[in-house]
Protein backbone atom coordinates (compact mmCIF):
# COMPACT_ATOMS: atom_id res chain seq x y z
CA UNK A 1 0.00 0.00 0.00
CA UNK A 2 1.40 3.37 -1.02
CA UNK A 3 0.81 6.06 1.58
CA UNK A 4 1.82 9.60 0.65
CA UNK A 5 2.66 11.92 3.54
CA UNK A 6 1.89 15.65 3.17
CA UNK A 7 3.93 18.00 5.39
CA UNK A 8 2.13 21.33 4.93
CA UNK A 9 3.96 24.66 5.22
CA UNK A 10 6.23 23.75 8.13
CA UNK A 11 8.52 26.70 7.57
CA UNK A 12 10.43 28.95 9.94
CA UNK A 13 8.12 31.94 9.38
CA UNK A 14 5.18 29.87 10.69
CA UNK A 15 6.81 27.64 13.30
CA UNK A 16 8.95 29.97 15.39
CA UNK A 17 8.00 33.00 17.52
CA UNK A 18 10.43 35.20 15.54
CA UNK A 19 8.75 34.14 12.26
CA UNK A 20 6.98 36.70 10.13
CA UNK A 21 3.61 34.91 10.39
CA UNK A 22 4.10 32.84 13.56
CA UNK A 23 1.33 30.41 14.47
CA UNK A 24 1.24 30.47 18.30
CA UNK A 25 2.37 27.16 19.74
CA UNK A 26 3.52 25.74 16.39
CA UNK A 27 7.11 25.25 17.61
CA UNK A 28 5.77 22.55 19.96
CA UNK A 29 4.85 20.47 16.89
CA UNK A 30 8.43 20.06 15.72
CA UNK A 31 9.07 16.70 17.47
CA UNK A 32 5.84 15.25 16.05
CA UNK A 33 6.51 16.66 12.58
CA UNK A 34 10.05 15.33 12.63
CA UNK A 35 8.86 11.90 13.77
CA UNK A 36 6.32 11.72 10.93
CA UNK A 37 8.84 12.84 8.31
CA UNK A 38 11.46 10.35 9.54
CA UNK A 39 8.85 7.59 9.64
CA UNK A 40 7.85 8.31 6.03
CA UNK A 41 11.47 8.30 4.92
CA UNK A 42 12.41 5.14 6.83
CA UNK A 43 9.37 3.32 5.48
CA UNK A 44 10.00 4.36 1.88
CA UNK A 45 6.79 6.39 1.78
CA UNK A 46 6.70 9.45 -0.50
CA UNK A 47 6.85 12.69 1.51
CA UNK A 48 5.52 15.82 -0.16
CA UNK A 49 6.39 19.02 1.68
CA UNK A 50 4.60 22.15 0.60
CA UNK A 51 6.47 25.42 0.97
CA UNK A 52 5.10 28.91 0.59
CA UNK A 53 7.35 30.75 -1.83
CA UNK A 54 6.43 34.40 -2.24
CA UNK A 55 7.95 37.30 -4.13
CA UNK A 56 8.52 40.52 -2.17
CA UNK A 57 5.38 42.09 -3.65
CA UNK A 58 3.17 39.01 -3.70
CA UNK A 59 -0.58 39.79 -3.96
CA UNK A 60 -1.21 37.50 -0.97
CA UNK A 61 0.39 40.19 1.19
CA UNK A 62 -2.76 42.29 0.77
CA UNK A 63 -4.45 39.74 3.04
CA UNK A 64 -1.53 38.46 5.14
CA UNK A 65 1.67 40.10 6.39
CA UNK A 66 4.72 39.37 4.21
CA UNK A 67 6.06 35.86 4.93
CA UNK A 68 8.08 33.07 3.32
CA UNK A 69 9.71 35.43 0.84
CA UNK A 70 11.95 33.49 -1.52
CA UNK A 71 15.56 33.58 -0.38
CA UNK A 72 14.85 34.52 3.24
CA UNK A 73 15.55 32.43 6.31
CA UNK A 74 11.83 32.45 7.11
CA UNK A 75 11.03 30.57 3.91
CA UNK A 76 13.24 27.63 4.92
CA UNK A 77 12.16 24.46 6.68
CA UNK A 78 13.86 23.74 10.01
CA UNK A 79 16.72 21.26 9.62
CA UNK A 80 15.03 18.71 11.88
CA UNK A 81 12.17 18.41 9.37
CA UNK A 82 14.36 17.64 6.36
CA UNK A 83 14.81 14.04 5.26
CA UNK A 84 16.20 12.25 2.22
CA UNK A 85 13.98 11.98 -0.85
CA UNK A 86 11.61 14.68 0.40
CA UNK A 87 9.61 16.17 -2.47
CA UNK A 88 9.29 19.94 -2.14
CA UNK A 89 6.28 21.56 -3.81
CA UNK A 90 6.48 25.34 -3.80
CA UNK A 91 3.31 27.38 -3.92
CA UNK A 92 2.43 31.06 -3.76
CA UNK A 93 -1.22 30.56 -2.83
CA UNK A 94 -2.84 28.92 0.19
CA UNK A 95 -3.93 25.84 -1.75
CA UNK A 96 -1.22 23.29 -2.62
CA UNK A 97 -3.41 22.28 -5.56
CA UNK A 98 -2.59 25.68 -7.11
CA UNK A 99 0.87 24.28 -7.89
CA UNK A 100 0.96 23.01 -11.47
CA UNK A 101 3.45 20.33 -10.37
CA UNK A 102 1.13 18.61 -7.90
CA UNK A 103 -1.40 16.84 -10.17
CA UNK A 104 1.22 15.11 -12.35
CA UNK A 105 3.20 14.16 -9.23
CA UNK A 106 0.15 12.57 -7.59
CA UNK A 107 -0.61 10.69 -10.76
CA UNK A 108 2.93 9.24 -10.83
CA UNK A 109 2.85 8.30 -7.14
CA UNK A 110 -0.48 6.45 -7.50
CA UNK A 111 -1.21 6.56 -3.77
CA UNK A 112 -3.62 4.28 -1.98
CA UNK A 113 -4.01 6.77 0.88
CA UNK A 114 -2.79 10.14 2.16
CA UNK A 115 -1.72 11.57 5.53
CA UNK A 116 -1.79 15.34 6.09
CA UNK A 117 -0.20 17.45 8.85
CA UNK A 118 1.36 20.88 9.38
CA UNK A 119 0.04 24.45 9.56
CA UNK A 120 -2.45 26.10 9.57
CA UNK A 121 -5.38 23.74 10.20
CA UNK A 122 -8.17 25.98 8.93
CA UNK A 123 -6.28 27.21 5.88
CA UNK A 124 -3.58 25.24 4.09
CA UNK A 125 -4.10 21.92 5.92
CA UNK A 126 -7.83 22.13 5.22
CA UNK A 127 -7.33 22.90 1.53
CA UNK A 128 -4.89 20.02 1.14
CA UNK A 129 -7.08 17.52 2.99
CA UNK A 130 -10.26 18.47 1.14
CA UNK A 131 -8.45 18.50 -2.20
CA UNK A 132 -7.06 15.02 -1.59
CA UNK A 133 -10.51 13.72 -0.63
CA UNK A 134 -11.71 14.69 -4.10
CA UNK A 135 -9.26 12.12 -5.50
CA UNK A 136 -11.37 9.36 -3.96
CA UNK A 137 -8.70 7.77 -1.75
CA UNK A 138 -8.61 7.60 2.07
CA UNK A 139 -7.22 10.78 3.64
CA UNK A 140 -6.31 11.27 7.30
CA UNK A 141 -5.29 14.41 9.17
CA UNK A 142 -2.80 13.81 11.99
CA UNK A 143 -4.47 15.79 14.77
CA UNK A 144 -1.48 16.07 17.11
CA UNK A 145 0.70 17.38 14.28
CA UNK A 146 -1.41 20.38 13.23
CA UNK A 147 -1.76 23.87 14.68
CA UNK A 148 -4.49 26.44 14.37
CA UNK A 149 -4.93 30.17 14.63
CA UNK A 150 -8.57 29.86 15.78
CA UNK A 151 -9.80 26.87 17.81
CA UNK A 152 -13.43 27.24 16.69
CA UNK A 153 -12.44 27.39 13.02
CA UNK A 154 -10.16 24.40 13.51
CA UNK A 155 -12.98 22.36 15.05
CA UNK A 156 -15.24 23.34 12.16
CA UNK A 157 -12.53 22.34 9.68
CA UNK A 158 -12.11 18.91 11.26
CA UNK A 159 -15.90 18.43 11.37
CA UNK A 160 -16.22 19.39 7.69
CA UNK A 161 -13.31 17.10 6.80
CA UNK A 162 -14.74 14.05 8.60
CA UNK A 163 -18.23 14.67 7.23
CA UNK A 164 -16.67 14.63 3.73
CA UNK A 165 -15.21 11.19 4.47
CA UNK A 166 -11.84 12.11 5.95
CA UNK A 167 -10.38 10.42 8.98
CA UNK A 168 -8.52 11.69 12.02
CA UNK A 169 -5.44 9.97 13.38
CA UNK A 170 -2.48 10.60 15.68
CA UNK A 171 1.30 10.40 15.42
CA UNK A 172 1.30 7.27 17.63
CA UNK A 173 -1.23 5.56 15.36
CA UNK A 174 0.81 6.40 12.26
CA UNK A 175 4.26 5.65 13.63
CA UNK A 176 3.43 3.06 16.28
CA UNK A 177 3.97 3.62 19.98
What would your notes on this structure say?
- This protein has a single domain (3-175), classed as Rossmann fold (3-Layer(aba) Sandwich).
- 32% of the residues lie in helices and 21% in strands.
- It has 6 helices and 6 strands, in the order βααββαβαβαβα.
- It has a 6-stranded parallel sheet, with helices on both faces.
- The mean pLDDT is 97.
Distance between the termini: 21 Å
- Spatial strand arrangement across the major sheet: 3-2-1-4-5-6
Q: Give the number of DSSP strands.
A: 6
CATH topology tier name: Rossmann fold
Structure summary:
This protein has helices at 12-15, 30-42, 102-109, 121-133, 151-163, 171-175; strands at residues 3-8, 47-52, 86-91, 113-119, 139-147, 167-169. The protein is of the alpha/beta class and 177 residues long.
Question: Which key features would you list for this structure?
Answer:
globular, 177 residues, six-stranded parallel β-sheet, alpha/beta, 6 strands, single chain, Rossmann fold
Write the topology of this structure.
Elements: E1 3-8, H1 12-15, H2 30-42, E2 47-52, E3 86-91, H3 102-109, E4 113-119, H4 121-133, E5 139-147, H5 151-163, E6 167-169, H6 171-175
Helix pairs in contact: 4-5
Amino acid sequence: MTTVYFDIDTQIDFLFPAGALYVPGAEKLIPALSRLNRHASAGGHPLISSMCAHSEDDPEFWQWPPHCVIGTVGQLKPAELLVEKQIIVEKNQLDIFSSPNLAPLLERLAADRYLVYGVVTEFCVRLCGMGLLRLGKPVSIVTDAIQTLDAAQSAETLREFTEAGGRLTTVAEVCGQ
